[in-house]
Amino acid sequence: MDSSHFIHSRGGRIGGRADTGATGVDAIVAALHADPRRHLVIHFHGGLVSKASGLDIADRLFADYSPSASEGAYPVFYVWESGAWETIRNNFTELADEPVFKQLLRKALQYALEKLGGSVAAGAGVGRSIAPGSVGSKESEVRHELEAFWAAPGKPTIPFRDLEPRATPAQARAAEAALDENEIIAELEQDGEFQRALATLPDLPRSARSAFGAAGASEHRSAFAEMAAAEFSKTSRTRGLVELIQVARFLIKVTRAVLGRRAAGRDHGLYATCVEEIVRAFKVGGSGVHEWAQALEWNRMKQDVVDAFGPDPDRHAGTALLARLGRALKNGMALDRITLVGHSTGAIYIAHWLAHSRDHLPEDFKQDVVFLAPAITYELFADTVAKHADRIGQFRMFAMHDALERDDQVWGGDEDLADSQDWRRFIYPSSLLYLVSGILERTADEPLLGMERFFTDTGTYGQAVDPALTSVDSVRAWLTDRPNALVWSKADSTGPGLRSASIDHGAFDNDAITRESLRHILSSGF
Question: Which one is predicted more confidently, 223 or 478?
């Protein structure tokens, strides 16, 4: 595949350190003008891949999109380099070495379980009934579950994976107020393992010492450890000292958030929700984790998309192609069809492309859209539909059924490790979209278009339940009005262009059956 089929950008811009410059985009449009198929397909990969991975994706899909000189379309691949996934992965996998993270997770699970009770039908504890209890009553049970999971962090051993809470939603809400600070402090004082973990936190500035002794303090200072040290030593009376009262208040905040989400039906499973709320508790509490979230690159990656549509057609990657396409069409280029394919965060790129199409393409020019496991929020897509639906021709989305989404663990699959031995799995037990929805977006359980739960669960997600969820209602109605708009994998018995067998978020652009559907869409239509 030569350079007339890809646009490489950095930070939303071409030229400079990017492989593609303005003359390269000119060459793409000239080649498209000469192509007899009069059909352009533009592929936007996910924003969490490197340049090398983006080019590999383009090489792999090229023959699917352009099988011959008379079939398919003229393909252009946006290779928008962010490297964000490396930063996200490194920041999260760093938690694996943080004793305090593990112990906070243990305690959050313990306190939530003590309030919820329930029954476990599968997983590490098969067929057990769990009664609600007082503070400390579930300590050994949770410890046992976690030790089993951390020793072999595969899907069957995710702690309390299929917990069915005994507490009703009303009881779960009432339990939020029943957490007693003094009881938790007393319980923490008796927990030697927890206190030894606190002793590993880095010292705060200048001769400040942990209340639990600095002798065993780690030399390595992860972002999480730095924030935990600051969070747990906030009182002006003993500035710089880790205090159990601060730890207890933090755990109460986390547990209340977990219980509240469970009561509202908006949890992601007990284990995943506890991980999410531990991280989010820092985000809510001050600038520390907000800065960490920025370091995770998620927001910067989305800003790269915005920057791609700046005003300069010789510098901004999205504007560069749109402006040249618009000029070519005005000058008589024959182009019957544009198909936009976006995988994961590539869907966000497409939303901005559609918005800016109005400034460059003819008023009546519609573009077909295909989403693959999109990581776009309902809010952004609702805004796109409200303002730019007249720019969308045919639409189809391929994504996973929720059961597969929950099973698709973000970390794992290392060639040198069996799944049950991959230690990274304990950090977060569900898919990338669950991670984005639960941690990286603005609110916990942020509705994402590529997650089935938000489309099918009308009793939880919609304006009738929460006025803030109006966007879910509007998008759901828009999708419902479009026949065959949704393909939930695995879907292998429906017609051409309607099949997918991907069980991995990152594999939709590599799954043979999904790619077969893409070939059909490009060659024969929707």
Answer: 478
